[in-house]
Write a structure and sequence with these properties.
The protein is an alpha+beta fold. The two termini are 39 Å apart. A hairpin with a 5-residue loop joins strand 7 and strand 8. It contains 13 helices and 51 strands. It folds into three domains: 285 residues, Alpha-Beta Barrel (7-stranded beta/alpha barrel); 228 residues, Golgi alpha-mannosidase II, domain 4 (Beta-galactosidase, Chain A, domain 5); 89 residues, Immunoglobulin-like, CATH 2.60.40.
């Protein structure tokens, strides 16, 4: 039987009986919640907040030998190590003493629903590497999430458990009356979750006791964790806190015990003592079981600072793609090199900017100026690292023969057909040319433009059946092109490819006819923009006033390009303050209806949405699905704003329609209408939030059945990770071995796959070199089961494996399981529903 995991169907089991309102033990844990950036910039955190907090805590520890302290976020430790080595050594001495706990294990305290699944793993991977190398500590077992507010994804327990986490301390969004419980993920992974009784910045005193007793009653335990100390802008435990503790101890009639405690000791005590805990299955903070007040909060943060959110998605995809090809390139060098330090430092910057007040867009404007500058540097580094890998791979391909060689690379683990863009450099300006595949058959292409000197042509061509995690060699011949039939054509009011016929009028789309399914996809005009008024200016919340307006059209739709592989037209419209350009594109051989929107935004206290009324009979059982990190969740189609990653999907009966995107996170589904939030202009934290130009892509994708049958996960990744083309030189691909002058006789053929998976529901999530290891031969391969069903995945490797071990996601070896096997260059793995599995291969 297939188990359905939904927000609406989250499971709450019976709470344990109440405990007496006396005999509490308060476990006192000193802490300072330090926002890396919020109403101040990162430089203030580094130069003032963290050093002042840590010095104050260390001084207090010297005067009071019982005080303990817990501090998360390894990024802070690194900054102290570099800027204040004296302070760093004092911290290390308290760590060695066992009074200073390095909790959380993450590089930063990220948002818990907006980062991609791989980013959530890298928080622990980068954090654990630093913790071992610079602090001499094994990775913590405690996830520390006191302040994340956008929501906590249903998949977090399996992601975190896979990183060695057993305990989950959090501060917001407990489901119902749960305080201590098992939080269970779709794959069955569990964390022992503890909702702290009182948020940070509490003032110790007798007034806290009623709330602590109520927490104890709901939790069913008498051991109550109390995090005390100034937070938000730092501070930590202070002398006034110690005096308040002594005053409480002096009141014998309270019948409480106060003990200084470390988080590790508290959770170990808790795990050993609790029995028959309730189990919760679902997302937290925004799902079922929450109060209406909680469910209505934070919705604006899925769209606030849209420019940063787009850059975050781009950098996640860029670094993962660059890692893949740099790893493959390292295997092919005569003296292998992998730029591990460069990747580590780039990830650190990206992960820091996924902090829970940065990525959600709830800080001051200066913070986002800094973040955009940071991610611009990551982009430059990521593009350099990607080119490094592609150039090494390309150098080993035998490119000899007629025609300029151009290699098309596919970063995904399945075979793909798509339109790819390329820059072709000529020695002399050509009169004409054509593009051919490895079989010398002509390939449809079109010229998009020329360089000023006429020696570089910018072209697009249809690359078919590009091998998984591999490449295909194409050639440019200086001969007259023929016109291969592609099935793509444009008329006055419609365009057609082999998958769709799309019609329009002055306002927008009037019809999208799915030729494969033989059905109309739109119930009313689609790709229509709406400007919705907001009740109040809040970077966090999205409360609509009920006011809405359509945008004013500027002229007729205009043809931007028309060719055998891609045709595009565009509409322009305005709000009075903002200019919006909507492009519609059909490509030959590509089963997506693609859109690009460019917005020059200057509106305030309003949100811009784009809508698609889908022609699915609402009398059928409509089901709305939203992608989460390493997973999917079903939510009600009631118009509520929800977060999602690369796609949302609406299905009913025999077919469904997915709305894909390459950098948006806020969506709502009302009945059979899909809506995407584009940009908004709340003024409470940043008076000019997101003013300026934004550009992103999105697409409609029709499929049979639900999202599983339609391979929606793969379709969305194809939009986010396009094919890449790089012109090559002429060479044999052979290289002399290092130092002995012999020829390394192998070269790569005209098309090749390095990694592939024989499974329609298992994909490769990451390919990288082992963290902290200096040998490029030790390759990490991560697999993910996408559809919630079990099966075998047969993984083809680039070479025979000398050694294979399974690891957790922070690359620690696991006990040998009997559900996978290796034979030369084929790894066969049993994948249970929703599983993420990581393997270390020595090739």
């Amino acid at each position: 039987m297939r188990i359905l995991w939904t927000a609406a169907l989250a499971v709450l089991t019976v709470l344990p009986g109440a405990v007496p309102a006396q005999e509490l033990t308060l476990h006192l844990i000193g802490n300072a919640h330090i926002d890396l950036a919020y109403r101040w910039r990162w430089n203030e955190t580094v130069l003032r907040v963290a050093p002042d907090t840590f010095e104050g805590v260390l001084d207090l520890m010297e005067s009071d030998p019982d005080v303990t302290y817990a501090q998360s976020q390894l990024a802070l430790y690194e900054e102290i190590e570099m800027g204040r080595p004296d302070l760093f050594e004092r911290i290390r001495s308290r760590i060695d003493e066992g009074r200073w706990s390095v909790v959380g294990g993450q590089w930063a305290e990220p948002d818990a629903i907006l980062p991609g699944g791989e980013s959530l793993i890298r928080q622990f991977l980068i954090g654990s590497e630093y913790s071992r190398r610079r602090l001499g500590l094994d990775p913590t077992a405690i996830a520390w999430v006191p302040d994340s507010f956008c929501g906590q994804a249903v998949t977090l327990p399996q992601i975190y458990a896979g990183c060695g986490i057993r305990y989950y301390l959090f501060g917001r969004g407990a489901p119902g009356d749960f305080r201590i419980f098992w939080w269970e993920a779709p794959d069955g992974s569990r964390l022992l979750a503890c909702k702290v009784p009182i948020h940070y910045n509490l003032r110790l005193g007798e007034a806290l006791l009623p709330g602590l007793r109520e927490w104890s009653r709901l939790a069913g335990v008498t051991d109550v964790p109390v995090l005390y100390g100034e937070g938000d802008h730092g501070g930590g435990p202070r002398r006034a806190d110690i005096e308040a503790i002594e005053q409480l101890r002096a009141k014998q009639d309270l019948n409480i015990e106060l003990v200084h405690q470390t988080p590790e000791s508290y959770f170990e005590r808790l795990a050993a003592s609790v029995r028959d805990l309730p189990v919760y299955r679902g997302e937290m903070g925004i799902g079922a079981g929450e109060s209406e007040a909680v469910r209505g909060s934070w919705r604006g943060s899925y769209t606030s600072q849209a420019r940063l959110k787009k850059a975050n998605r781009d950098m996640e995809n860029l670094l993962l793609t660059a890692e893949t090809f740099a790893t493959l390139g390292a295997m092919l060098q005569r003296k292998p090199l992998y730029p591990r330090v460069d990747f580590r430092e780039a990830w650190k910057v990206l992960l820091r900017n996924q902090f829970h007040d940065i990525l959600p867009g709830t800080s001051i404007g200066d913070v986002f100026d800094d973040a955009m500058a940071d991610l611009s540097a990551v982009r430059d580094e990521g593009e350099r690292l990607l080119r490094f890998g592609l150039e090494v791979i390309g150098s080993r391909i035998d490119t000899r023969g007629s025609g300029l060689p151009v290699v098309v690379y596919n970063p995904c683990s399945w075979e793909r057909t798509d339109v790819v863009e390329a820059a072709i450099n000529f020695v002399v300006e050509p009169d004409r040319f054509t593009v051919c595949g490895p079989d010398l058959a002509e390939v449809p292409f079109q010229i998009d433009g020329w360089s000023d000197d006429g020696l570089t042509a910018y072209i697009s061509f249809l690359a078919e059946a590009v091998p998984p995690v591999g490449y295909r060699l194409y050639r440019i011949h200086l001969q007259p092109p023929s016109t291969p039939e592609t099935g793509l054509s444009m008329q006055k009011s419609f365009m057609v490819n082999r998958y769709y016929k799309v019609s329009w009028n002055n306002r927008g789309l009037t019809s999208i006819y799915d030729k494969r399914g033989g059905r109309e996809l739109l119930a009313a005009p689609g790709n229509v923009t709406l400007l919705l008024g907001e009740k109040r200016s809040s970077s966090w919340d999205l409360e609509l006033s009920g006011e809405s307006q359509s945008l004013t059209r500027l002229g007729e739709p205009q043809v931007f390009e028309q060719g055998p592989v891609r045709s595009t037209l565009f509409w322009q419209e305005h709000t009075g303050s903002s200019l919006v350009t909507r492009e519609l594109t059909l490509k030959a051989g590509v089963p997506r209806v693609e859109f690009r929107m460019t917005v020059d935004w200057h509106d305030h206290d309003q949100v811009l949405k784009v809508t698609f009324p889908v022609a699915i009979d609402s009398g059928r059982a409509l089901r709305a699905f939203f992608e989460q990190p390493f997973g999917v969740i079903e939510r009600p189609a009631d118009g509520t704003e929800w977060p999602a990653q690369n796609w949302i999907d609406l299905c009913g009966g025999e077919f469904g329609v997915a709305l894909l995107n390459d950098g948006k996170y806020g969506f709502d589904v009302r009945g059979s209408t899909l809506r995407l939030s584009v940009v908004r202009g709340a003024r409470d934290m940043d008076p000019r939030m997101d003013e300026g130009v934004h550009a992103f892509r999105y697409a409609l994708f029709a499929h049979p059945g639900d999202w599983r049958e339609g391979d929606v996960v793969q379709a969305a990744l194809e939009l986010n990770r396009p094919l890449m083309a790089l012109q090559e030189n002429f060479h044999s691909g052979e290289l002399p071995n290092w130092g002995d002058g012999r020829i390394n006789e192998f070269s790569l053929p005209a098309e090749h796959s390095f990694f592939s998976v024989e499974s329609g529901h298992v994909i490769v999530s990451a390919i990288k070199v082992q963290q902290g290891d200096w040998s490029p031969a030790n390759v990490v391969l991560r697999l993910f089961e996408t559809e919630g069903r079990s099966g075998q995945a047969v993984v083809h490797l680039p070479a025979a494996a000398k050694r294979v071990v399974e690891t957790n996601h922070i690359e620690q070896e696991l006990p040998l399981a009997g559900d996978w096997s290796i034979k030369e260059d084929v790894l066969t793995v049993t994948m249970d529903p929703h599983k993420i599995r990581t393997f270390l291969l020595t090739l």
